[in-house]
Write a structure and sequence with these properties.
With 435 residues, the chain is an alpha/beta fold. The chain has two domains: 44-359, TIM Barrel (Alpha-Beta Barrel); 367-425, no CATH class. 50% of the residues lie in helices and 8% in strands. It has an eight-stranded parallel beta barrel, surrounded by six helices. Helix 5 (106-116) links the parallel strand 2 and strand 3. It starts with 5 loop residues before the first helix and ends in a 10-residue tail after the last helix. The structure holds iron/sulfur cluster. Iron/sulfur cluster binds at residues 408-409, 411-412, 416-419. Belongs to the ThiC family.
Amino acid sequence: MQYTTQMDAARKGIHTEALKIVAEKENYDIDKLCTLVAEGKVIIPCNKNHKGIVPNGIGSMLKTKINVNLGVSRDCKDLDVEMQKVHSAVEMGAEAIMDLSSYGDTQKFRRKLCSECPAMIGTVPIYDAVVYYHKALKEITSQEWLDIVKMHAEDGVDFMTIHCGINKETAAKFKRNKRLTNIVSRGGSIIFAWMEMTGEENPFYEHFDEILEICQKYDVTLSLGDACRPGCLADATDASQIEELITLGELTKRAWEKDVQVMIEGPGHMPMDQIAANMKIQETICHGAPFYVLGPLVTDVAPGYDHITAAIGGAIAAMNGASFLCYVTPAEHLRLPNLDDVKEGIIASRIAAHAADIAKGVPGAKDWDYAMSAARKKLDWEQMFDVAIDPEKARRYRAEAAPEKEDTCSMCGNFCAVKNMNRILDGEIVSIYDE
Ligand code: SF4
């Protein structure tokens, strides 16, 4: 092999198979794409051991991608049910699946995922370490944390969330600057607790070079975790969040020196008026590395509807530079999502991503909307269902209240503006009242 990672290949001017696939999918000039991968502005997460992957590129100038979180947990331990969710998520358009398994034989599910799923696979090794070692958190050693990273890399994981930004300095800043909701990142809270109990430095920060060696060997993309992402509007853009981001910017440069691909994880909960500024700050501090946002949720008051609060924030974030959206389901803050929640979350994220792609001028994005509008003008219901983002729901809704006249819908019936305009412009008489 003449290269280690996709970034290394791009820096050597090598057009890898993955680069060619991404350029073709995105309808993007391959030489320009190669330069962006070399610069770290586009990433192509694809572990050498994930043989069945269909590669995708992530970068603000490309189509916005979405991630779906799944995984086995104490309350949902059926591998087959979880795999069903994976397959339907991919069918519904998710480009990435994050396996957040936290119960039982997590390696079995992870390996199954890497051997069967063509989407990018992400994990959070911190969660797995807690399950894998079967011992109290403070007993886990620095080496054991790193061993889990290596195990995930060997299993074929394409990107890993590594909470390396919350070092002793960030933790001290967090303690000095009180927050309303402290640390809401699961991985962040675990590593913060470990640091508090052991008095040691964050092992992912302290041994970052060893993590880079693992990532370089397997071509694992680092998703630099945001332990200090705001968990409520009151904590948005505070000292802890920015302090951690500065550390992530420094670590990004160190990763790039070893040709390791990087993306940065972001907020969180955030008022709408702060989102664009946050995207700009991230882009500047993290040198243009792709931004992966977890929401942002634009209000705290909508449990049961957080797929909507996240879609609003995700659309604004993506329009302003974020390139990867983590889905949020209606079950967020309440319980584990079921299949319906997963579907609602994916559709909401896809709407946000597509709305942003239109605004960003991503080639071909508007064509989809044109196709729907053309079908609407013709009142061609079958064609509308075909191009709808959720054909099943569109078809079901129409069938639930069938119109008297087949060429309208029950919303306006005889008053159908589309039908009446088509007729009058065709020279027909439009009466409405007695039709
Ligand atoms: S009936 Fe009203 S809502 Fe339905 S297609 Fe016609 S104009 Fe649109």
